Every structure is written in C-alpha cells, then in structure tokens.
Amino acid sequence: MDNSPLKNFFGNKWVRLALILDVLIVITFVVIIIMNLSKTSTITLDVTPLDAKIQLNGAEYQNGTVAIAPGTYEVKISRDSLDSKTFSITIETGDNLTIAAFLKSGTNDFSFYKLKENLDSFFELENIASANNNKTYDKDSSAEEFVAYYRGIYKTLSTKFPIEHQEYTETANGSELVKDVTIKPVYDEECKTSTCIKAFMLGTDDKEFIKSLIEKKGLKVEDYEVYYKIY
Hints:
Layout: H1 5-11, H2 13-38, E1 41-48, E2 53-56, E3 59-61, E4 64-68, E5 71-78, E6 85-91, E7 96-102, H3 111-116, H4 119-129, H5 141-160, E8 163-171, E9 174-186, E10 196-202, H6 207-216, E11 225-230
Parallel strand pairs: 1-7, 10-11
Antiparallel strand pairs: 1-4, 2-3, 2-5, 5-6, 8-9, 9-10
Helix pairs in contact: 4-5
C-alpha cells in the first residue's frame, strides 16, 4: 500500500476540490480571452435623448463606440414618456456600424426636447438628421423637423439679442452710469433647456424690469429659462 506524501496530498478531497476550481478558473479566463478576440467589429451608438436606455440582446450599453462580436442583435432603445424603438441588426466581422436613433412622443411631438433637454440633444439630433451621415440607422424626418425648428429659434434670437440698457444720472462730475443691463442667449452648463437667456445686471436687481425689456422685443418670457447675474 502506497502511502507516499504526494499520493496522500492528491488524495485529500479538499485538495482535489481546489484543483478542480483552479481548472475551472483557467477555462473561464481562456473563454473570456477567446470571446474578446472574436470582437473584431465595432458599433457606435448615437442615441437621443442622451439618457435613453440602450439594449443589445438584453445587455445595456451607453452612447459611444464599443467592440462587439459579429452576429445578429435585437436593439431596443427606450426612455420613460417617449416611444421606444425595437429593431434587429446584423454585424459582420470587421464592420464599423453606427446606430443613430431619435425617440419622440407621438407624431412629431417635440415637447420633451423643448422643455427638458439641454443643448447637447440638439447637436445629437443634428447628426442624426444630417444628409451626409450615411452610416446612421435612423435618418429620421422628424429629427430633421426638430432641427429646423430650433434653427428657426436661433435665427429669431439673433435678431432680438443682445438687449442692452444703460441709465445715467447727472452728478457734479458729469454723467455717471447707474444701471447697466445686457441680456443675451446662453449655451453653457447652467442652461437646462435649449432656450436660455441670461441677464447681466449692474446697479439693479429688478427682475420685473428685465422681463419688461425682453417683452419689448416681442418675446414671451415664459418661453425661456432666464438666469439673472447681478454684479
């Protein structure tokens, strides 16, 4: 009867279990490496709104470019309060595919974007609606309409702004600037919608006065997100 230390070592059930686990771990790593090597294709996701949920065969992705294995995928794009889109794509080895999709609520209803989205969504939609963007999955005519709508807004705003107002008072040393107001559209990190204006106010904190200056230009203050900067 061979009671050698080596045989006793490998005869221990806990040692055998550890060896089996080690083999399984090695196999798992090999499978992962093989799967990664098979991801010879890329897919670029360009979806608006930016916080939409993007799923490929149930796995969640975000906007951007990722390596992906060739095959057929069911794509589902969804977001609360907007109509979802579901479709299938086939990715061949070596493909560099772009999926651009635009979610809306109802037929040509852009209220979600007008009220809730920041300017980044407009730029994403411009890309989707671009006639030169022939890699997109979804060149959407409603996206084109949305872009045209906001281009019209920007064109209108350019004829209304900047709004400037200065008031002087006479002193012993001559005229002194006591109120200086400049109002203009802004597209910065503070802007939570696509129609923001900022009032830079020196010598006054009268917001109603600022609103009256905007209304004199034929604009409705309630259509804009107004920021007041008092210096």
